[in-house]
Amino acid sequence: MKLDLEAMRAAPGRPFAVSGEEDIPTLDWRGESLLVEGAVHADAVAFYQEERVVLRVRVQGRVHRPCSRCLVDLVEPVNYEDSLEVMPDELVGSYLELRPMIEAGMRIGLSLKPLCRPDCRGLCPTCGADLNREGHRPGCGTKETRDPRLAKLKELL
Ligand SMILES: [Zn+2]
Ligand SMILES: [Zn+2]
């Protein structure tokens, strides 16, 4: 998605709007490569002023993530809006490419600890059992989540 810089320079202060789909198959995020489901929808409104572009970008997309407790794959909807200024030294050529801003918006819109469901019970830190689907494995000393030893372990983690 691009903004026509020449047209914007010719009409300072006038808002220009673009919208469309951006194809971003994967998103690099904190060392992970996250799959994006479908295209990312983006729209932007911008104007040119004092050799800068003042911009508002909104992104909407769906991103595959591992649940932060049980690691199951989930699809997180991202809906993020940001306002920014693009400085003169970044405004070269006749177009302003918005893809980097769209990718950045998708990254910022991700939650830090995604959950497959609000009450996900996660993996037992002692025996590794997926507590959403099974009980503790034989030999696991953890009887319930309020076990003081588990609380101690959680503190250490
Ligand atoms: Zn989960
Ligand atoms: Zn266990």
Short description:
By secondary structure, this protein is of the alpha+beta class. It has helices at 5-10, 99-109, 148-156; strands spanning 2-4, 16-22, 26-29, 32-49, 52-66, 73-86, 95-97.
User: SSE order in H/E notation?
Assistant: EHEEEEEEHH
Query: Average pLDDT across residues?
Result: 92
User: What is the number of domains?
Assistant: 2
Helix percent reads: 10-25%
Instruction: Kindly report how far apart the N and C termini lie.
Output: 43 Å
Q: Can you put this structure into words, describing what you see?
A:
- With 157 residues, the protein is α+β, with helices and mostly antiparallel strands.
- The chain is 17% helix and 41% strand.
- A hairpin with a 6-residue loop joins strand 5 and strand 6.
- The mean pLDDT is 92.
- It binds zinc ion (2 copies).
- The site of one zinc ion has 7 residues, from loops.
- One zinc ion (ZN) binds next to loops.
List the helices and strands and how they pair.
Elements: E1 2-4, H1 5-10, E2 16-22, E3 26-29, E4 32-49, E5 52-66, E6 73-86, E7 95-97, H2 99-109, H3 148-156
Antiparallel strand pairs: 1-7, 2-4, 3-4, 4-5, 5-6
The site of one zinc ion (ZN) has 7 residues, from loops.
List keywords for this structure.
alpha+beta; single chain; 17% helix; binds zinc ion; two-stranded antiparallel ribbon; five-stranded antiparallel β-sheet; elongated; 157 residues
